[in-house]
Design brief:
Length: about 90
């Protein structure tokens, strides 16, 4: 993330700005994930929901605590966040 920001990819308040520098809409994210899944069949069921699961799992594996992750994902009960986690076998 630091490399992304220091390279100047994000120019405003949002890490991934959309049209006219505004935040990306949920519809825009769905459109991009559908297009990627079509262009790259190996990504199969790619969706914003899958990206959320991946983000949650990888950040915990890399040492983020559950409460911080819960706040980042805007989940009220911690149980909601725990549904996104996929432990290693």
């Amino acid at each position: 993330m630091t490399q992304y920001l220091s390279a100047g990819f994000s120019t405003g308040r949002w890490v991934f700005p959309g049209y006219m520098g505004r935040p990306l809409s949920p519809a825009a994210v769905r459109k991009v994930t559908r297009k990627l899944a079509t262009l790259h069949p190996q990504l199969g069921g790619l969706s914003p929901h899958i990206l959320s699961h991946t983000f949650a799992t990888l950040t915990l594996r890399r040492g983020m605590d559950l409460r911080t992750l819960q706040a980042l994902m805007c989940h009220k009960p911690c149980e909601t966040t725990s549904r996104y986690l996929h432990p290693r076998p």
